[in-house]
C-alpha cells in the first residue's frame, strides 16, 4: 500500500504545494472587493444642486409619503424618459426620470431612500436639491426640485 494522503481542509494537496484554505480566502477577498467597488460605482453619491432652494421639511414630507406608499414593501414607483412627478409637498417636487430606457420601476421605499440621501448630502441652511439614482436601479433617476 502507498502512503496515505491527507485531503482535509487546509492540508497540502499531494500534487501542488499550496494551502487550500489560504487560496479560498484569497478568492473570497477578491470577490468581495470586486462586489464592493461595483456597488459603489453603480450607486455613487447624489449630485447636489449648485444653489439648493427646496425646503428640507417639504422634501421630508415627500420621503415619508413615498415610504408610506410602499406599504408591504412591494409597491413600485415608475419613472419615464421625459420625467414624471412622484410626490409633491409645499414647494418640493420629486421627479422620476428613466435613463437609457423608455420607462423603469423601483420600489417606492428605495426611491424614498434615494431622496433621503439627497437630503443628507445636499442640505445647506435648511435647503436642499439635487438628483440621485434609485437604490437598486441605476436607470431610475430621482430629482428634488422646487415647483
Helix/strand layout:
Layout: H1 20-43, E1 47-48, E2 54-55, H2 56-70, E3 76-80, E4 84-89, E5 92-98, E6 103-107, H3 108-122, E7 127-128, E8 130-134, E9 137-146
Antiparallel strand pairs: 1-8, 2-7, 3-6, 4-5, 5-9, 8-9
Helix pairs in contact: 2-3
* Portion in beta strands: 25-35%
CATH A-level architecture of the largest domain:
2-Layer Sandwich
Q: In this structure, how is the largest beta sheet organized?
A: 5 strands, antiparallel
User: How many angstroms separate the termini?
Assistant: 86 Å
Text of the CATH class of the largest domain: Alpha Beta
Q: How many discrete domains?
A: 2
Q: What would the principal axes of the Cα set say about the shape?
A: globular
CATH topology of the largest domain: Killer Toxin P4, Chain A
Placed side by side, the strands forming the largest sheet appear as: 1-8-9-5-4
By helix and strand content, what is the structural category?
alpha+beta
Number of helices: 3
**Helix amount:** 25-40%
The radius of gyration over CA amounts to 24 Å
Look at the structure and give the mean pLDDT: 81
Protein name: Ecp2 effector protein domain-containing protein
